[in-house]
Every structure is written in structure tokens, then in C-alpha cells.
Amino acid sequence: MKPDILFHPFQLKTLNLRNRIVMAPMTRSFSSNGVPGQNVAEYYTRRAAGEVGLILSEGTVIDRPSSSNDANVPHFYGEEALAGWQNVINSVHQAGGQMGPQIWHMGIMDNHHSGWTPSVPFEGPSEFNRPGFANGKAMTESDIADTIAAFGRAAADAKRLGFDCVELHGAHGYLIDQFFWEGTNKRQDQYGGNTIAARTRFAVDVIKEVRRQVGDELALIIRLSQWKPADFNNKLAKNPEELEQWLTPLADAGVDIFHCSQRRFWEAEFEGSDLNFAGWAKKVTGKPTITVGSIGLSGEFIAGFQGESSDPSSIDELLRRFDRGDFDLVAVGRPLIANPDWAKKIHEGRDAELKGFSRELLGQLV
Ligand code: FNR
Ligand code: 8K6
């Protein structure tokens, strides 16, 4: 099968994508004092010029305590940072690209593990169930209300600056995800509960507030994962029924696209079917989905940060699943760090020219 099938437009609300390739959100920490500069604008613009259909920004944090304590992670608030983002989106648009910010609150996952989180102490087999994480601060109802409002403000700013969509970071054990898990959300109020459906309340309120701020037309994506770092084996939804209980309230609240984070896109999510996470999310919600995870990577490099070579062999399997309609868009991470023109080279059959990813590349903005 030829990659051409990925090079068809995708239209949904404010999105008018030239193809199905998405740049996965990737933290790069090059924004001094939270302000994305000209170097960051040029980095994203090179991907737009390289024919990426949709660029999702690195996680960019909302205006609340402990949203991040890395001084080089970009903010999505404040005059200077927003002016920086205005420059980014103008430049990406000029190069023919489309882009949305991934808006983010780290919660307890900030560097000191002392941030806001649904509840402390944690229980259960959890990445967070470590001594260092005991210093977190359980959010009060007013902290929660403020945080929901801050997500809404960030989305409104994204719309005002002219971004084409917004992505909520609801994956990988950060704040929104901390509300989903039983081990990290022991709340007894309306934001907690014994079922996964009950624990979607925080995300649902964030989504509703974003919708209230931006209206119906701006495309809204949420990124979700079944895993958290260091706890890869404990899945959030154990079966399709739980998946439905988790995703349906989010879809009903106003999500347009589910971005389903997997480390390897070809891994089946549940027994009895080869559908991956994005495949199942599409099946249970009827919404478009984005898949991701080791696309175009090979060897040791797969689902790890090691390895040297980039080999598009897994692309055949990706195309087979895409052709079957399992998902609508495909996100690519590390290969796009190494090759700003990854999409263009795949389109033109110039795979042999692709460079491999290596950790050293993270020290610069290629
Ligand atoms: C990531 N990833 C990530 N995910 C996310 O939702 N927000 C983020 O800010 C980041 N940051 C980040 C930084 C770096 C350096 C890497 C390598 C990854 C995860 C990323 O979006 C993607 O899901 C994975 O990299 C898997 O895709 P690939 O690299 O196998 O194509
Ligand atoms: C400059 C130091 C950067 C260190 C790189 C690690 C980045 C961590 C990002 C975590 C996000 C989850 C990773 C997704 C899994 C991909 C395959 C393991």
C-alpha cells in the first residue's frame, strides 16, 4: 500500500488539513521564562513547510500554581508569551500549516512533586505512590474552579490568536489524567467517585468551559492515554465497556477528536480484536481519532528513547489500519524531531533520505 492514502484532506469545523499527518506534541524547553521566541517559531514553521497537516505544540502551561516549574516550558498566558505564540501561528500559517496549542497543567508531576493534585495520599499501584510524591496539595473546590477557568482562558486566547484548534493534555499522568485514576483521585465530592465515569467530572467541566469560551466551531482535541510513565502495565480502562464509560461523557461535553496516546500503534488494546486504542476510541464514540506511537521507527528505537535508525517499515501496518478506517489522523513524534520534512519525504517516496532520531537532537531545535 502506498502512503498516498494519508495525503488526502481532512475537514472538521475549523480544521482544513491538507493531509492526515499530525506533529505529536513534544516538550522542548527552549522558551526562556515561558516565552516562545523566534527560534521556536522557526522550528514549527519548518514542519509546516515540510508538509505536516496539523502541528500540535509542545505542552504549554495554563495560568495556575504548579502548572509547571520548568522555566523553559512555554506559558500560554501573559502578554509576552502570548505575543510569542502570535508570532508562531502567523509564521506557521504563512508556510501553509495549521496548528493548535496543547494546553497543560502538570499537577503533582512538576519537578518537585509538590504541586496540585486531586487528593493525597495516593493509593494503589501507581507511579505516584512514592515517598517523593507525598508533598502534593489536594485541590480545594475553589482551586478546581480556578483551574477550569484558566483552561477556558487559554482556549479563548488560542482562538483569539488565530490557532486552528486546541488540544487538552489529558494524558500521561498529568493533572487532568490524575483525576481519571482511582489511585490518584480519592475525592469523595463531585470530582471523585468509585467509577471511571464519576472521575471524568473534572475533564467534563474543563471541556464545557472551553466550549463556553470558544463556541462550537473551534475543533477541540483531547489527548488521553491508558498508561502513565513507570506504570505501563496498569491500564485505565480494562475493557471496552469501561472505555465507553470514560470517553462518552467527554464526547458529550464537546470533544471533537480523541488523540489516543500509545507507545506502539500496532498493539491491540483489548483481547479478541487487533484494534488499537484509537481504533477502540473511534468505535465506542463514533468520533474521529488520532493514533500515535513508534510510526516509522525500528529496532531498539521503538517505544524507547534509544536507537539510531529510522525505518518506515511499520508504515505498511499503519496504512493497512488507516485504510480499514481504524483512525483518521496519524501523529508522528521523534521522526519529526529528526526530520522537519518527514511528511514531505514520505509523500515523495524519499524514505531513504530520512535521518534517525537520537537523544542528542533534543539539545537543539533542528
Ligand atoms: C513527548 N511526548 C509528549 N506528549 C504530550 O502529550 N505532551 C508533551 O509535551 C510531550 N512531550 C514529549 C517530549 C519528547 C522529547 C518526546 C520524545 C515525547 C510524547 C509524544 O507526543 C509521542 O506520543 C511519543 O513521542 C510517541 O510518538 P513517537 O515519538 O513514537 O512518534
Ligand atoms: C531534554 C531531556 C528530554 C528527555 C526526553 C524525554 C521526554 C519525556 C516525554 C515523556 C512523554 C512520554 C513519552 C512517550 C513515549 C514514547 C515512547 C517511549
TrEMBL record:
<dbReference type="GO" id="GO:0010181">
    <property type="term" value="F:FMN binding"/>
</dbReference>
<dbReference type="Pfam" id="PF00724">
    <property type="entry name" value="Oxidored_FMN"/>
</dbReference>
<dbReference type="GO" id="GO:0005829">
    <property type="term" value="C:cytosol"/>
</dbReference>
<protein>
    <submittedName>
        <fullName>NADH:flavin oxidoreductase</fullName>
    </submittedName>
</protein>
<dbReference type="InterPro" id="IPR001155">
    <property type="entry name" value="OxRdtase_FMN_N"/>
</dbReference>
<dbReference type="InterPro" id="IPR013785">
    <property type="entry name" value="Aldolase_TIM"/>
</dbReference>
<dbReference type="InterPro" id="IPR045247">
    <property type="entry name" value="Oye-like"/>
</dbReference>
<dbReference type="GO" id="GO:0016491">
    <property type="term" value="F:oxidoreductase activity"/>
</dbReference>
<feature type="domain" description="NADH:flavin oxidoreductase/NADH oxidase N-terminal">
    <location>
        <begin position="6"/>
        <end position="352"/>
    </location>
</feature>
